[in-house]
């Protein structure tokens, strides 16, 4: 596509990047066929092709309004369009550039600014988020439904103890994260128990909290980069010394973000090399287990057949579209003896998408209910996923338990 970017951006790094992305788009429209918001709304401007044109017009200096902002806000950043695009258009990066520009040019309402501020400042800080969740549980009847639905009904179960002091020669690091320790503390503990059975010690490092994804996707990129540097500082002594062989991610949303640390910090002379190294050794938990599939199968054979419980798996967008990891969790669950039920339109987003379920509750609820209906089609006993955001969002509309898939592997090995 032809471009003529305006002077304010044309000779900047972001402008050159945006120009290359825009020129790679051939306007074919294949992306709309797999875009969740286009499927719901049927509006060209609520699909990737339309949003690309809106961003192009903005970067070429044409007037932008709240309407442009609305259509960009409605994007889930699910990246389903990227896995569909035959031209390899880097839509997500173009969207990030467009959103950063429009934040400067179209002021948000006072209420919207206040909401964004609270989300940016409270959620990444565990010392604020944890008591806020407890207070919210006590005040649930007074909260708006969009917030009340996100809160667990009871205190989260930490599960069985985290194995320590086993003397394993292999060690890996897990990100504690900002939300997961409060809402689903058993996720990392279950991962530690599974890896322990495989001869790998899993540790968490103090100081490594929010990976930066939360603030980055709320258009607070500078603050997000600081979050990323803090995580790198916490991990670097273990990584640099060779005492750990890799980073294990149990939330695919965080995993997707950590894997682009090297790209996002490539212009930072103090962190570029460190960030690239961190990204290179980061693996989703399912990739770590898949590499140990032979030993896992031996362990599964020692604990019975798993009972053949029916399970529906929702693959988060950050796993299947951003990281391009498909079929791995399903293979692990099948090997463990679970029966996976079919999920129609498995490529579509559940509507969680970070803070999307709070900022766009109507669309997020429609997407959630559609996903739950698809997952229920095979009458599963359990719903499982690979990301804390998807887990809590789906659970808010489901009476069927929604769990992290690693918990099922842990229970199978402990049977």
Automatic annotation (TrEMBL):
Native source organism of the sequence: Accumulibacter regalis
> Looking at the keywords, is Protein transport present?
no
Quote the EC number: 1.1.99.14
Tell me the enzyme class. Answer: oxidoreductase
Q: Where is the 4Fe-4S ferredoxin-type domain?
A: 66-95
What function does this protein fulfil?
Component of a complex that catalyzes the oxidation of glycolate to glyoxylate.
Per its UniProt record, what SUPFAM superfamilies does this chain match?
Answer: 4Fe-4S ferredoxins (SSF54862)
Q: What does the record give under GO molecular function?
A: 4 iron, 4 sulfur cluster binding; glycolate dehydrogenase activity; metal ion binding
| InterPro entries according to UniProt | 4Fe4S_Fe-S-bd, 4Fe4S_Fe_S_CS, Cys_rich_dom, Glc_ox_4Fe-4S, Helical_ferredxn
Could you name the domain of life of the organism this protein comes from? Bacteria
- Any transmembrane segments, and where? none
- According to UniProt, the name of this protein is Glycolate oxidase iron-sulfur subunit
This protein's UniProt keywords: 4Fe-4S, Electron transport, Iron, Iron-sulfur, Metal-binding, Repeat, Transport
- Does the keyword section mention Transport? yes
User: Which coenzyme or cofactor does it need?
Assistant: [4Fe-4S] cluster
Cofactor note from UniProt?
A: Binds 2 [4Fe-4S] clusters.
Residue ranges that the Swiss-Prot or TrEMBL entry lists as coiled coil: none
**Catalytic activities:** (R)-lactate + A = pyruvate + AH2; glycolate + A = glyoxylate + AH2
């Amino acid at each position: 596509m032809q471009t003529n970017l305006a002077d304010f951006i044309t000779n900047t790094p972001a402008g050159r990047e945006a120009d290359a992305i825009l020129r790679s788009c051939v306007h074919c429209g294949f992306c709309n066929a797999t875009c969740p918001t286009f499927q719901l709304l049927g509006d060209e401007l609520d699909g990737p092709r339309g949003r690309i044109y809106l961003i192009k017009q903005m970067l070429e200096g044409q007037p932008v309004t709240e309407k442009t902002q609305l259509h960009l806000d409605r994007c889930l950043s699910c990246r389903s369009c990227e896995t569909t695009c035959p031209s390899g258009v880097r839509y997500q990066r173009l969207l990030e550039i467009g959103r950063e520009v429009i934040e400067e040019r179209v002021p948000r309402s006072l209420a919207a600014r206040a909401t964004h501020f609270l989300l940016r400042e409270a959620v990444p800080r565990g010392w604020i988020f944890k008591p806020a969740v407890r207070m919210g549980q006590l005040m649930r009847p007074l909260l708006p439904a969009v917030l009340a639905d996100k809160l667990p009904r009871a205190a989260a179960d930490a599960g069985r103890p985290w194995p320590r002091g086993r003397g394993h020669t292999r060690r890996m690091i897990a990100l504690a994260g900002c939300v997961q320790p409060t809402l689903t503390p058993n996720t990392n503990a279950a991962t530690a128990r599974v890896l322990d059975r495989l001869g790998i010690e899993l540790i968490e490092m103090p100081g490594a909290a929010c990976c930066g994804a939360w603030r980055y996707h709320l258009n607070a990129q500078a603050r997000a980069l600081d979050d990323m540097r803090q995580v790198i500082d916490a991990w670097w002594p273990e990584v640099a010394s060779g005492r750990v062989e890799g980073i294990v991610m149990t939330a695919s949303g965080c995993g997707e973000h950590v894997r682009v640390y090297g790209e996002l910090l490539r212009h930072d002379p103090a962190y570029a090399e460190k960030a690239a190294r961190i990204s290179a050794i980061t693996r989703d938990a399912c990739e770590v287990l898949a590499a140990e599939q032979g030993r896992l199968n031996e362990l599964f054979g020692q604990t019975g057949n798993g009972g053949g419980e029916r399970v529906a798996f929702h693959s988060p967008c950050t796993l299947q579209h951003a990281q391009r990891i498909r079929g791995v969790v399903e293979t692990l669950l099948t090997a463990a003896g679970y029966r996976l039920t079919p999920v129609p339109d498995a490529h579509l987003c559940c509507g969680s998408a970070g803070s999307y379920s709070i900022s766009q509750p109507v669309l997020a609820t429609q997407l959630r209910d559609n996903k739950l209906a698809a997952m229920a089609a095979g009458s599963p006993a359990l719903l499982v996923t690979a990301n804390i955001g998807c887990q809590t969002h789906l659970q808010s509309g489901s009476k069927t338990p929604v769990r992290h898939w690693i918990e099922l592997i842990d229970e199978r090995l402990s049977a």
